[in-house]
Specification:
The protein is built from six helices and no strands. Helix content is 64%, strand content 0%. Helix 4 runs antiparallel to helix 5. It is globular. By secondary structure, the protein is mainly α. The chain starts with a helix and ends in a 29-residue tail after the last helix.
């Protein structure tokens, strides 16, 4: 019996070690929870019914899929896209919510997974022009 228990315990150890060595995605869940809060609760829902929060939830799913594949570059690109969306207030989200989410993302997102230098302060108040957009003229 002791030999069986020992063998069973030894068989579990590699699985436990592997599960604990995978990077945690708690920060993605926290950001999605914050988005859901703005979408479903309080005055933002009442005062900004036209705001399209689903754009942000979908982008965080892109972040999650890249992160789960351990694709650091794709996660970095997807997270920076998310931060750009907040700066531009895509989907007509309110300024205050965009600022709060932006600052929250800076707090919880691992530094190597977004452009810390570009996103170190609060987002600009003016509508920024995205790098891939061109001005007419």
């Amino acid at each position: 019996v002791i030999a069986l228990l020992t063998a069973f315990a030894c068989a579990l150890v590699p699985g436990v070690a592997q599960a604990n060595s995978e990077p945690s995605s708690w920060w993605i869940d926290d950001i999605k929870g914050a988005i859901t809060f703005y979408k479903d609760v309080g005055h933002y829902k009442k005062d900004y019914p036209e705001a399209n929060w689903n754009l942000y939830l979908k982008q965080m799913e892109v972040v999650r899929m890249s992160f789960q594949k351990a694709d650091t570059h794709a996660t970095y690109v997807a997270m920076n896209r998310f931060m750009d969306m907040l700066e531009a207030r895509d989907g007509g989200i309110p300024v205050q919510a965009a600022h709060e989410l932006f600052n929250f993302c800076n707090l919880v997102t691992p530094a190597g997974l977004h452009d810390v230098e570009r996103h170190k302060g609060p987002p600009r108040l003016e509508q920024p022009q995205r790098p891939f957009e061109t001005t007419p003229g």
